[in-house]
Input
Amino acid sequence: MIAYSDWLHLFAYGGLAMSLAYAFQHSNRPEWQILVAVGLITVGYGVSIELLQSGLAERTFAIKDMLVNAVGAVVAVAVWRGLCRYARFYQARRIADLELPVE
Output
């Protein structure tokens, strides 16, 4: 059975990866470079947080948490890749720019 804290790590780092992927959506780089960068940034952030926690008395260091963070990031990148095939993203400067097309 998966612990509650593992679910929290999984969804938190998945959410971070999705947010980064969305932020880089309109980059001029190829999609694979963006997704690799998002994965590396998210996993690197998770590893660095765990390493910083090792020096704090009230926090615990766990390699398992690093692995769960990495799994959350990789799954989110894969889901983002699939989502981009079916969703369209628009850049809007104002709310009025988001008018629905009339068919």
Summary: The longest helix spans residues 63-86. The radius of gyration is 17 Å. Residues 4-98 form one domain.
